[in-house]
Design brief:
The protein is mainly alpha-helical. About 70% of the residues lie in helices and about 0% in strands. It has 2 domains: about 170 residues, Serine Threonine Protein Phosphatase 5, Tetratricopeptide repeat (Alpha Horseshoe); about 120 residues, Four Helix Bundle (Hemerythrin (Met), subunit A) (Up-down Bundle). Helix 9 packs antiparallel against helix 10. The protein is rod-shaped and about 110 Å long. The N and C termini lie close together (about 10 Å).
Length: about 350
Amino acid sequence: MLAAAMLAWPGAARAQGIGDVREGNALLAAGKHSEAAERYERALRGASGQDVAAFNLGCVLLAEGKHAEAAARFREADRLTRNPKVSARARYNLGRALFDSASARPDEGAMQRLAESAAAFRSVLEVDPGDRDAARAVEIVRRAMKRTQDEQDRAKQEQQKQQQEHEQQADELENLANEQQKQADQSQEASKQPDRSQRQQQSERQAEAQRDLSQQTEQARERQRGAPSRSMEEARQEQEAAEEALKANDPKKASEHQQRAADKLREAADEARERAREAGKQEQPPGEQAGKESGTPRQEPGEPTKQAEAKETKESAKRDPTAAALLDREKRQREQRQAVRAVRGAKEPVAKDW
């Protein structure tokens, strides 16, 4: 408890500081967070007791999910206090705030916040070497960092795989477009053949070649990730129309359809290259819910009441919705939830009279 830290507060200003903290605690217990925060902020402007006021305000901000602001208050409490118990608890909650921040915002800075979280938990042991919660938290953060790095590596590999697939598909579609253009030119030449019999023979050869090309296009369409693009669908429709025109010995009409098919295939190739570029510059999240293991903050100077459930955070990393990926993700999340139960809750704001 931190009651002893506040016993020597003589004078009106100090008494006022005590009163503001007490009022803040009562308001917080009633669920009035904003009013409680106002009292703690007023206590911060008092002559003494700023360390406890800063700590309690940090606890309010952390409960509201304002991790960066909470972390700043816990650092302030640690800087202002001369009481090792306040210092230890402020450092512990700083570690939790940084950990939650990494979980809530899985951006490129999350790994840095996890490293700072581990450092904060280790610093608790400098003040209180026997703090088992802090020792356990250090190991939990270390595992979270390892898991986060693994997530980053997997996401990067998946990103590179998608980029490569799109590039290969773009090359394939470009080749198909070139071949389709060639057949359109040949059909155009066949339409100029004055001899009907020879024109019929050329149309038959062209029809066979078009069927082969249409089959290759269909195979490429089936290999596309997700739903086929509109350009691919339209290219296939034009190819089918070209086949029908060639069967009817109308190479001129077939050439028009083949030309449009070639144009659509080039559009599809451009779309695939754009998808490859997007995959290459996608910002990969550093992991899924990195902070779910650390439990709730240690909000303690005073009567400790433990929060039983860790805050659930939204999943950031978006990956292809394959069954394997979903099952793998569900397994990791289940393991994280199990780890939460093994960690002690945080300490709550000062609730005891001085």
